[in-house]
Design goal:
five-stranded antiparallel beta sheet; 223 residues; alpha+beta; 31% helix; 5 strands
Length: 223
């Protein structure tokens, strides 16, 4: 009984604010700011800041800009914020490798689709951001052959836009050159780039290569 009397009722500790990986706040800097302390972030007027924690301390938000992160004064950015529903797509499209890695680390799925059925890999490929493509292809499920509503895969768009290095990389990671889009065209037919056409043809020959005996191997010419 005495033990029960001495037990104090503890006030519940509010849960720590966690950045929800499905969305991210984006604000634009109204003024240039030069960091005054090591934990602050410098930025120029007009730059986009990706805010992922607004509860660090009053009037200071934790944000990312380019490849850096730190605290930013709330009164230096616009009040109206944009909410990005698919932050991994946005980072892939912009070629922001640092943010892309951060989103992946925070649990944003690489398999998410936008309204046109595009993956983040598709957008990185379309924009020609090789480093982002490499990062996305290394995910456990990179869905390299995912088709959007037009029937296009990342290989289709890489071939059509002449991204030679990306085409080569996609083929290495299992991109299927025989998939047709809604116009019944394979990736090779969308490219005017000779090196891309040759690369795809070589990939097809290698995948069609057979091993073991063929009918000719059974022909005995010794008689």
């Amino acid at each position: 009984m005495a033990t029960m009397m001495n037990m104090s009722v503890q006030t519940p500790v509010p849960p720590k604010t966690v950045w929800k990986p499905g969305k991210v706040k984006v604000v634009r800097a109204l003024y240039k700011y030069i960091a005054q302390n090591a934990d602050e972030l410098s930025f120029d007027e007009g730059e986009l800041l990706y805010v992922y924690d607004k509860n660090i301390e009053p009037n200071w938000w934790k944000a990312k800009c380019r490849n850096r992160e730190g605290l930013v004064p709330a009164n230096y950015v616009e009040e109206q914020t944009e909410e990005i529903e698919l932050p991994l797509h946005d980072a892939a499209r912009r070629g922001n490798l640092s943010l892309l890695k951060e989103y992946i680390k925070q649990g944003v799925l690489g398999t998410s689709l936008d309204t046109m059925g595009n993956t983040s890999l598709y957008w990185a490929t379309r924009a020609g951001h090789l480093d982002c493509v490499k990062e996305l292809l290394n995910l456990p499920n990179s869905i390299v052959n995912a088709q959007n509503k037009l029937g296009e895969t990342p290989l289709h768009v890489a071939a059509s836009r002449g991204h030679v290095d990306i085409v080569n990389l996609l083929l290495q990671y299992g991109a299927d050159p025989m998939i047709k889009n809604n116009d019944s065209l394979v990736a090779e037919e969308l490219s005017s780039h000779l090196s891309i056409k040759n690369m795809i043809q070589l990939s097809q020959r290698q995948s069609n290569k057979t091993y073991g005996y063929t009918d000719d191997d059974y022909n005995d010419d010794s008689d």
